[in-house]
Amino acid sequence: MIRSDHDVLIIGGGVAGLSLALELADHRPVTLLRPAQDDLGASVWAQGGIAAVLAPQDDVEAHVQDTLVAGDGLCDEAAVRFTVENGRAAIDWLLGLGVPFTPDTTTDAPYPYHLTREGGHGARRIIHAADATGRALIETLLDHVRRHPAIQLIGDLQAIELLEDPRGDCRGALCLDATHRPHLVAAHDTVLATGGASGLYRHTTSPAPACGEGMAMAAELGATLMNLEFQQFHPTCLYDPSGTPFLISEAVRGEGGLLRDARGRRFMPDYDERAELAPRDIVARAIHAEILRDGGTHVLLDVTHLEPGRVREHFPTIHAHCLNRGLDINRQPIPVVPAAHYSCGGIATDLHGASDIGHLHAIGEVACTGLHGANRMASNSLLECLVFARAAASALRRRSSGRRGEPVEPSIAQAGVASQQSLARRLEELRDIMSLHAGIVRSDAGLASGRDALRHLREASEPLWKDHAPTPALARLRHALLLAGMLLDVASARRESRGLHHNLDCPTHGTGKATASRIRSGA
Question: Which residues are catalytic, by number?
Answer without folding.
Answer: 280
